[in-house]
Amino acid sequence: MAADVMSRLATLLPPGRLLDAPAQLAAYESDGLTAFRTTPLAVAVPETQDEVIALVRFCHTEKLPFVARGSGTSLSGGSLPVPGGIVIALNRLNRILRLDPAQRFAVVEPGVVNLAVTTAAQPHGLHYAPDPSSQPVCTIGGNVAFNSGGAHCLKHGMTSNHVLGLKAVLATGEGVEFGGLSREQVGPDWTGLFVGNEGLFGIALEITLQLLPRAETYHTVLAGYRTLEQAGDAVSAIVASGLLPGALEIMDALALEAAVAAVHADYPPGCEAVLIVELEGPREVVAAERVRLDEILARSGADEVRVARNAAERGAIWKGRKSAFSAVGRLSPDFIVQDGVVPRRRLGEALRQISAWSREAGLRVANVFHAGDGNLHPLILYDGRAPDGLARAEALAGRILQMCVAMGGSITGEHGVGVEKRDYLPAMFSAEEIGCMARVRAAFDPLGIANPGKMFPTAGAPALTQPGLHPLERSGVISRE
User: Fold this and answer.
1) 194 plus 236 within the same structural domain
2) What percent of the chain has pLDDT over 70?
3) Most CB contacts within 10 A, which of 15, 41, 209, 392?
4) Could you give the number of structural domains in the chain?
């Protein structure tokens, strides 16, 4: 059966673009969450939108599960292959189709790298605001699937705040177009619904992105503290003052150690935490805000405060922060990156609890987080070679997620649910709410073949078919091709 499927699948692509050799498949067995691995049946490498559509329609006809994948940077197992299914690798759909500096938008294919959008927009004084730590390698299609954020999401918001419209192929093989070139749309926000669907609806083929004017000036400050609590209190003071920085980030001593080892980041020695604050905007506004920020930091008990004097020093500060996840690999053979959210006022309490559980479990935890919006990224270090290494790390990760929910937060801020956090979904939502989500998913993918086994607590997706017209067709949102 598998051989027959493979032979017919091979007719959809030119020779060499359907991968099935063990050495070829090994590169796709996992994504950024390497603790989970599955070997796919094959990896299809389309180069055009028509090829993607043909592949999805084939999968629908054959009831063949598929997983769309870009650079594989997901930290929740979001692009983990499905046993017996295929991976549709989108990296070669990497064209910026249109960039309009006057109307400030860009139309891109899903395999375009995040940073490439800003690079293309820079000559026009524009940039693309969402900036995940994996910005130099992650793709826009993955950003859309998981509603990615980044260090500057405090001020500028998530991916959903910057996607104006998109063209996609649903898991049924039907083509849809949502949104447009303007935020002034009539009717349901289908674009907003599609962003963050974790690949459960289908595959985005073209994404229309909002571009923003690059700030006239930046003021980037690095403050070192003796304790995490002092750094957290400084964040509270900054927010309470009415300032809205572009970014508010905290790294603890272990994360600092990793960043220094990996990229030779120059951070204040002997500090238990550093706070990165970045103001941005018109020169006159930033000058006024800088005075207020200086006063707050002077009262915050910082051991040392450094101000980036030029673009190179600003870049060095951010290089250390954005390398933190990968840098931890220098301290431990394995680690799990968590992604919970707590109310900002409870950051200190949450960090104290994580520290206590870390000692109890005998596992080191490095803390890196978007302090401005309470998005925690505890990196749990473990040794996968130990018989119970992964199990202990996962148990600690689970306690942290349950704590986030108990504090009134969320099990994910920007990494998605994927396979890692799906069993914790009932901690946030009732059975009725999860059932509603499943029905929404089934409206787009009644066979449950698009990225099955992700997000929902039960492995696999229900085949919730409904007679008559497709629910979206009844709404006039899609047309059959």
Assistant:
1) no
2) 95
3) 209
4) 5
